[in-house]
Amino acid sequence: MSEVTEDNDFDASNGGSPDASGNGASEPPGGGQYVDPNGEFSRDMQYITTRITADGRDGYPVEPGRYRLAVSRACPWANRAVIVRRLLGLENVLSMALAGPTHDERSWTFDLDPGGRDPVLGIERLQEAYFARFPGYPRGITVPAMVDIPTGQVVTNDFVQITIDLSTQWTAHHRPGAPDLYPEHLRDEIDAVNDEVFQDVNNGVYQAGFAGSQEAYERAYHRLFDRLDRLSERLRTRRYLVGDTITEADVRLFTTLVRFDAVYHGHFKCNRSKLTEMPVLWAYARDLFQTPGFGDTIDFVQIKQHYYEVHRDINPTGIVPVGPETAGWRTRHGREVLGGHPFGDGTPPGPPPPHETVPAARQ
Predict the structure, then answer these.
(1) Model confidence over 193-206: pLDDT tens digits?
(2) CA torsion 104→264→288→180, rounded to 10°?
(3) Is the pLDDT of residue 9 over 50?
(4) Which active-site residues does the annotation give?
């Protein structure tokens, strides 16, 4: 779990720059400056590290119906939590608040809901849940975030730990046939793969896109594509990143790959190759996209709206591209010949609840 570089829980007295960060990152407010003029983009990895656990060690025990997962479909870090929740079948015990694809200088807003308020939390902005626990919270108002419904207070926004805890702490509420996304005997390997993918791919696209110098951009660019080449070699003879089934590692890589051609290739200048021009990774990504719980969480329209409308110092006009076409995501991938089974001895999740279904026109 070494993506996080700060292990202490948030302390409001620690200071930090106020922003309305998106994408699970400490970024500037919507419409502000995202490119670091000093050169290399550096992600603030200090999050609220309170955990929701089976034994309630931090004061927040796992309880059906008590917590609400706040996300935006636009955000790759939040997308991880949406996928894991779907795969594990936690929809009936952990409700989900859907923020819109853009945010302003204050925070993500629930502008998709009637009246612009989340129907369960009763708030217009996710910022309100953060301030309810930490008045004047000075760091990024990020998604995903777990909110305690009775108090309206944010519990954690530690996106790295949230999905691990859904797999390991919420087991009493997993659906029958749910996959083990973080099997104990593979955790060291999963963690090692996740570290490399985070540094060079998940965060690497941002380091390229938000670079403030040619040198910083080229360093990130080469790290990104060197790692993608290595991942292609790894996946050439194996269906999944670790073991014979989907794991946490596949979830984390997928959320970047699925956004690659729509956003990162052009908007972030990650343009050596499109995903569709990298045969192994393109087939791997389509395999996951067509696996229940992955592609049915993706809203390409909201993804593009977020990046192209919010990052105005990169895209000053706010014009959102029409393409690329998405029909290719449903074409045959042929990865079955490599063996393995997405859910091992388990079963795929059922269809998403009607109120959480992404319209086909947006996929």
Answers:
(1) 999 999 999 999 99
(2) -60
(3) no
(4) 75, 206
Spatial contact of 202 and 252, defined as CB atoms under 8 Å apart: yes
Domain 12-173 has CATH 1.20.1600.10: no
Q: From the options 1.10.260.40, 2.40.10.330, 3.40.50.280, 1.20.1050.10, give the CATH code of 184-296+315-362.
A: 1.20.1050.10
Tens-digit pLDDT profile for residues 59-107? 999 999 999 999 999 999 999 999 999 999 999 999 999 999 998 878 9
Residue 108 is labelled as binding a ligand: yes
* Res 213 pLDDT > 90: yes
* pLDDT tens sequence across 123-174: 999 999 999 999 999 998 999 999 999 999 999 999 999 999 999 999 999 9
Q: Nearest Cα to 228, choosing from 261, 189, 187?
A: 261
pLDDT computed for residue 3 by the predictor:
37
- Output the pLDDT for position 104: 80
Looking only at the bridges linking them, the beta strands covering 67-72 and 95-99 are parallel
The answer to whether residues 285 and 241 touch, using CB atoms and an 8 Å cutoff, is no
Question: Residue 32 — pLDDT band, cuts 50, 70, 90?
Answer: low
The model's pTM = 0.92
Domain ranges of the chain: 12-173, 184-296+315-362
Domains 12-173 and 184-296+315-362 share a fold: no
pLDDT at position 41 is 77
